[in-house]
Specification:
This protein is 38% helix and 22% strand. It is α/β, with parallel strands linked by helices and 342 residues long. An eleven-stranded mixed β-sheet has the order 3-2-4-1-5-6-7-11-10-8-9, with helices on both faces. α5 crosses α10. It is globular.
Length: 342
C-alpha cells in the first residue's frame, strides 16, 4: 500500500494520474490561503510589528524554502567546522524533532556542542552561557523570532522549480519572494550532475541579482560499517544488490546516488524522522535476505541499537564540496562576524 507521504510527493511532482490532477486543482485555494498566512507573518516582521530577539553572539542561520532534502544538517555541520578551523568557538542550535539530529551533529563534530530548544533564542543563550562565541542554527530560515546576522538558504538542485507551488499543493514552505531575505543562496546537489547545477544557478541568479549563489555538492565519501570498523569506497557497491533504507523527506536522491555507484537498489523508504522500532529492524533484516543494508548517517544513529550485530549494515557517508562561490561564502561569513562584534 502506498504511504500518504509517497503519494503527496507524486502529486507535487505532477504525477498521480487523474486523481493527482484533481487534487492539484482542489488544493489551489488552500495554497493561496497558506501563501497569505506566510506573507502576513513575514510582513509583520518586516514592519517591526513582530520583533526578533537579539542574543549576545553572532547567529548564522542555515535553512531552506522547501520541505526537506536540501542537506541542511551536513552543511550546518560543515559550516560549524569551518568556523572552528578559523579559531571560533561555534555551537549548533536546533529545535530538533528527536534525538537523531542531535546525535548526528555530535558524531559529525564531536568537539562542537549542540543545544536544543523549542525557542531557538533559549538554545542560543545556553550556548553563550557555555562560553561559545558563535551559533549556527540548523533549519531556521522561517524561524524569524531569533535575529540572525547571516541567513543562508539552501535549495536542492533536484527539487528546483522556477514556478514552485507551496504547501499543501507543493513542497515549498514559501514562494520565490522569500529568497530576498537570504544573504547567501546555497544550491546543493546529491544525484544531479554539475551541468544541471550550473543551469539552476544561472536561473536563481537572474531571479535574485546581487545575492551570492554558492554551489555545493554533497558527495558520497565512502561506506563504513554501522557499528564502526574499517570502511570501504563506494566502488564496493558496483554490481551489489542492496536494501537501501531512508527516512527522509526526499529519499530519491539517496537511492539515485547508490544506483549511480552501480548498486541494484531495493528502496525501503520511511517518513521523515521515522522513529524506527525493533519490529522495523526485524522487518528490514528479513527483507534484506542476506543483501547489504545501506542507510544514511541520519538513520544509522537510530538503527544502530536495533539491528542485530551480525547484520551486513553499512552507512553511506557524505562530504561537503564547495564547487563554486567559496570566496563569496567566506566573505559573507567574515562580514557577519565582524559587523556583529564591531
Amino acid at each position: 500500500m502506498q504511504r500518504p507521504d509517497d503519494f503527496a510527493r507524486r502529486v507535487w511532482a505532477g504525477e498521480g494520474g487523474a486523481l493527482g490532477a484533481a487534487l492539484r486543482v482542489a488544493l489551489a485555494p488552500a495554497e493561496a490561503a497558506f501563501r497569505g498566512i506566510v506573507a502576513a507573518r513575514n510582513g509583520a516582521y518586516d514592519r517591526g510589528w513582530m520583533r526578533s530577539e537579539q542574543v549576545g553572539l553572532p547567529v548564522i542561520s542555515v535553512g531552506n524554502v522547501a520541505v526537506g532534502g536540501a542537506g541542511k544538517t551536513p552543511f550546518a555541520a560543515w559550516l560549524a567546522r569551518r568556523l572552528a578551523d578559523w579559531g571560533r568557538k561555534p555551537a549548533i542550535a536546533l529545535r530538533g524533532y528527536g534525538e537523531d539530529e542531535i546525535v548526528l551533529h555530535r558524531e559529525l563534530n564531536p568537539d562542537i556542542p549542540v543545544f536544543r530548544g523549542k525557542r531557538r533564542a533559549d538554545a542560543a543563550r545556553e550556548a553563550l552561557a557555555a562560553g561559545r562565541d558563535t551559533v549556527v542554527l540548523d533549519d531556521a530560515f522561517q524561524h524569524r523570532a531569533l535575529a540572525r546576522d547571516l541567513d543562508l538558504v539552501l535549495i536542492p538542485v533536484e527539487g528546483w522549480e522556477p514556478r514552485p507551488h507551496v504547501l499543501p499543493r507543493g513542497p515549498w514552505r514559501e514562494g520565490l519572494d522569500a529568497l530576498a531575505r537570504a544573504h547567501v543562496i546555497v544550491l546543493t546537489r546529491k544525484s544531479a550532475d554539475a551541468a544541471r547545477a550550473e543551469t539552476v544557478a544561472a536561473e536563481v541568479a537572474r531571479l535574485q541579482p546581487g545575492t551570492p549563489v554558492i554551489r555545493v555538492a554533497l558527495l558520497p565519501s565512502g561506506l563504513v560499517p554501522l557499528r564502526g570498523g574499517a570502511g570501504t569506497t563506494v566502488d564496493a557497491l558496483a554490481g551489489r544488490r542492496v536494501l537501501a533504507v531512508a527516512a527522509l523527506a526526499t529519499p530519491e536522491p539517496f537511492f539515485a546516488t547508490l544506483r549511480q555507484a552501480g548498486a541494484e537498489v531495493d528502496a525501503a523508504a520511511y517518513p521523515d524522522h521515522h522513529p524506527f522500532s525493533a519490529d522495523d529492524a526485524r522487518a528490514l533484516v528479513a527483507r534484506a535476505a542476506g543483501r547489504m543494508l545501506v542507510m544514511t548517517h541520519k538513520d544509522a544513529v537510530k538503527l544502530r541499537a536495533l539491528l542485530p550485530a551480525d547484520a551486513d549494515a553499512w552507512v553511506l557517508e557524505q562530504r561537503v564540496v564547495i564547487e563554486s562561490g567559496a570566496d563569496a561564502l567566506d566573505v559573507a561569513l567574515r562580514r557577519a562576524l565582524t559587523e556583529h562584534e564591531g
